[in-house]
Specification:
about 240 residues, alpha+beta, five-stranded antiparallel β-sheet, two-stranded antiparallel ribbon, 9 strands, about 30% helix, about 25% strand
């Protein structure tokens, strides 16, 4: 008997093997959808590439702009002029899905969020993410332009695989359940509960807005095999 089809309740989903990219299951995997903070996988991928290229270090300090400090949704309450290391900004993005930290990273790397988004879209093209168009680095959809911020479960699997396969150091952050920034004075708790409750979980990123629904790119490794599962538009 063949295995029963999994029931996710999601608008779109996919399961792939990380090493080869083999698709093990898919449902509406090419449908273009909003993805909320799962967007930040590409932000993290660009950041990791800049570090590997020697253009950025975990220890260097970024400064919060007025714009970055104005972000709403999930934030760590960064204020204009506040300084934070790149490492702590990455930690805040991965664990707490902090929009202000995400924009602060983007501005530090590219000079502006819009210039960083150009880098995101270029990388998407290079990875042949054919159903993807980014308009911001956070996945926030509270302005009219964000209606064009779309990708697919399949494309998310592509960028998730790229991040995990070629930048494995990201797992030092994506596997953290709880941590702190600001010298231990500000606590972070991972929005991805699988990190605490699912044996072998290695990440990766959650997302939610009213338009996108609940979204997740989850990764886990057991017995030398790592899988990536993406679900979009869940209730």
């Amino acid at each position: 008997m063949p295995p029963e089809e999994p029931v996710t309740g999601a608008r779109a989903s996919i399961l792939i093997e990380r090493e080869t990219g083999q698709v093990l299951y898919e449902h509406n995997a090419d449908e273009r959808l909003p993805i909320a903070s799962v967007t930040k996988i590409m932000t993290l991928l660009i950041t990791a590439q800049e570090i590997n290229a020697g253009n950025l270090t975990f220890e260097e300090t970024a400064v919060c702009s007025d714009y970055a400090g104005s972000m709403d949704g999930s934030v760590i309450w960064l204020e204009k002029g506040e300084e934070m290391s790149v490492g702590d900004l990455i930690k805040s993005v991965v664990i707490a899905s902090a929009n202000d930290a995400c924009v602060m990273l983007a501005e530090h790397i590219a000079g502006s969020e819009s210039a960083f988004v150009d880098m995101m879209n270029l990388r998407a093209q290079q990875l042949e993410m054919k159903d993807t168009h980014f308009v911001n680095c956070t996945g926030l959809d509270d302005d009219p332009e964000a209606a064009n911020h779309l990708t697919s479960a399949y494309d998310i699997a592509i960028m998730s695989r790229e991040l995990l396969k070629n930048h494995p150091d990201i797992k030092k952050y994506t596997t953290i359940w709880m941590d702190t920034v600001r010298g231990g004075t500000f606590g972070l708790s991972n929005t991805n509960k699988l990190v605490r409750f699912y044996p072998g979980a290695t990440g990766l990123k959650t997302g939610f807005t009213s338009a996108a629904g609940y979204c997740l790119s989850a990764s886990a490794e057991r017995d030398g095999m790592e899988l990536v599962a993406v679900v979009l538009g869940s209730e």
